[in-house]
Amino acid sequence: MIETDRLILRPHILEDYEGMTAMFGDPAFFRLSGISPQSREDVWHRLLRYHGHWSAFGWGLFAIIDKASGQFIGETGLADFHRGLGDAFDPFPEAAWALMPSVQGQGYALEAVTAAHGWFDANRPQRTVCIIDPINTPSQKVAAALGYAAFGDAIYKGHNVTMYERFAR
Predict the structure, then answer these.
(1) Which residue from 10, 146, 142, 139 is spatially nearest to 67, judged by alpha carbons?
(2) What is the DSSP letter of 5?
(3) What are the phi and psi torsion angles at 162 (to 5°)?
(4) Do 134 and 119 form a contact (C-beta atoms < 8 A)?
(5) Residue 96 Cα to chain centre, angstroms
(6) What span, in angstroms and rounded, lies between the C-alpha atoms of 119 and 12?
(7) Residue 130 — φ and ψ, nearest 5°?
């Protein structure tokens, strides 16, 4: 578990399912990605995949919990998604962050992502990667603040994405 001034980051638990379905089922959440909302079944599979990361690797995505309310507000961390984007991308831990639309724009993403990367760098320092839709300027700003730099473009599930890389600090 990681604590910041406003947040608690911890591995997902089954009780996060409803918060996750609310976030991944909200069309507003996907406005900067071109991807469609996910079904409850897809979110359930996602939650179980997150559990598997921690079991298999000892690292994965954290649920982001608002300290003040105790509510699930998103997730961040690193994962092994096997996206099929090539040798310059797939073998490396992939950073991810996602926040509910209701809390976006309040600095939670940078606070959470910085904490997760600090933990990862202290435990498994190495090159990490991420993909971001070219229209998602808020995520591009978060990535830049963490030291990610663009290194190529790709098509992922029919959508244009920019690939970014970062070397542990």
Answers:
(1) 10
(2) S
(3) -105, 135
(4) no
(5) 2
(6) 16
(7) -160, 160
- Looking at domain 2-126, does it have CATH number 3.40.630.30? yes
Whether residue 83 contacts residue 47, with contact meaning beta carbons closer than 8 Å, is answered with no
> For residue 125, what are its two tokens?
């320092």
Cα–Cα dist 98/87, whole Å: 25
**What is the spatial distance between Cα 3 and Cα 64, in angstroms, rounded to a whole number?**
10
Q: Position of tokens 């409850």?
A: 40
pLDDT in tens, 28-63: 766 655 667 788 899 899 899 999 999 999 999 999
What is d(CA 148, CA 158) in angstroms, rounded to the nearest whole number?
23
Which pair of tokens denotes residue 83? 């996206």
CA 44 to chain centre: 16
DSSP 134-158: TT-HHHHHHHHHTT-EEEEEEEETT
Give kind and range of the element (H or E) at residue 115.
helix 108-123
Alpha-carbon span 146 to 16, nearest angstrom: 27
- pLDDT value at residue 16: 94
What are the tens digits of pLDDT across the range 127-154? 999 999 998 899 999 999 999 999 999 9
Length of the chain, in residues: 169
